[in-house]
Amino acid sequence: MIIxxxxxxxxxxxxxxxxxxxxxxxxxxxxxxxxxxxxxxxGALEALRAGLAATPAPAPLPAMADDRDGEPPVPxxxxxxxxxxxxxxxxxxxxxxxxxQWAEEAGGVLRP
Length: 112
Prior knowledge:
- Helix 1 crosses helix 2.
- This protein has one domain.
- It is globular, with a radius of gyration of 16 Å.
- The longest helix has 18 residues, at 79-96.
- It has a four-stranded antiparallel beta sheet with strand order 2-1-4-3.
- It is built from three helices and four strands.
- By secondary structure, it is α+β, with helices and mostly antiparallel strands.
């Protein structure tokens, strides 16, 4: 499932497996669709930042001499990196006094 986050300040998409934990960190149930009123953005952003700070960094990759296909292994993405677009959207929406909402992308297909 793909989740689209939207506000008058912008939008982005994220896989649900990554989006739902971030929504829960903001103090929400993880229900989709959902929204945060402009008046509640500061609290949601603080809760998200606290949750991210408490999240351990991913384990480093073990040293490998050779990978099967000759490509080096891809390092894991931290929760802080993954949350960057959401933090940015929340900050911009809070500055402009806009609500933020999220919903499942229709049929898992990106719309234009």
